[in-house]
Structure formats: structure tokens, C-alpha cells
Amino acid sequence: MKVLSIRNPWAYLIAYGVKNIENRSWNTKYRGPLLIHSSGPPHTWVNLDTLPKQFQTRANAALDDGVPYEQLDPDLRGYSDLVTMMCKKYDVQNESDETFNDTLMKRARGRGCALKGDAIIGRVDLIGVTQDSQSPWALPYHYHWRLTNAELLDPPITGVKGKLRLWNFDIATPRG
pTM (2 decimals)? Predict the structure, then answer.
């Protein structure tokens, strides 16, 4: 199966269905299923403040307006799911104050990183490539790989070194 290596935290944002565009300097004719490889060092947290301003604005507006989970856009639901998973894993109350991120990061570091590195963590469908996406994730002067149907692999396939460009991986082969 085709695989794309992406650095954290972007790989997890894609696998959770939060980030629907992957920016690349190169185009591809490939369309279809794509495994997401989390490359590089692990991360402990995806802080809303580190995400694009357009995404932050939409997330904060939804919070301020009290939009129910079911009515959130898919990317905001994905981010909510990621926060919920991290909170459960590290027994942290999801509070809206400044201490929340610090508390979550400290507990995550104390118990090992939640966002794995050197692992195949998810699967998406690559449905197209454009250069004019209006997604808040799209960067100017890049090819915008349009992704859908995100799934997180549980458990991830660990101990897999990444590669440049698209590469092949046999998901059926047992890993030692």
C-alpha cells in the first residue's frame, strides 16, 4: 500500500480527520488509499495555539457559541476527539484555562509520548490534488493533496522508518 511520511503533529491531525489538506512541493498522479506515517521524533501534544489562525478562529467561535459536537465541522470534531483521547489517556480535566496545556504536556511527558514517531498511524484516501484549495490548511504555492475518510490505526505499526515521496508498505507483513 502507498505510504506518505509526515512529521508530527501534522500526521496525527491528518489521521484524526482534522487536517484535510497535505501541502507538498510536488504533484502526484496517484489517487486512492494512503497510509500515514508519523516521521521524526514523537510529540506530546497538539496545542490549538500552534495551528493555523483560520482553524483557531473557527474552533474558538464554535466554543464561544456552544455548538454541539454533532454539529461541528468534521475537522473540528476530529480535533475534539484528539483532545478527548489525550485527556483520558493522561487523566486531565479539559479546562479552558492556561494550566490545561501545561498539565497535559507534563503528564504526557511523564508517561511517554502519546503521538508516536517512526510509526504508521493512520489511513486516508487521496482524492485529488489542486493548487487552489480554500482549506485553512492550504499553503500558497504548494500542491494541496485533498484527503478524506481518515482512520487512526489502533494500535499503530511502530518501528517503521519513513522515506521521501510516496513509498510502498505491506501492511499484512508481521512486524517484529
Answer: 0.77
The answer to whether position 176 is within a domain reads no
Classify residue 173: in a domain, yes or no. no
Write the CB contacts of 24 (distance below 8 Å, at least 6 apart in sequence). Answer: 142, 143, 145
Which residue stretches of the chain have pLDDT < 50?
176
Instruction: Please count the structural domains in the chain.
Output: 1
- Domain containing residue 93: CATH number: 2.30.130.30
Residue with cell 464554535: 62
Q: Using one digit for the tens of pLDDT, what is the confidence trace for 92-140?
A: 665 555 555 566 656 555 555 567 788 999 999 999 999 999 988 888 9
Distance CA 6, CA 53 (A): 21
Classify residue 38 by burial, with Cβ atoms within 10 Å: 0-12, 13-18, 19+: buried
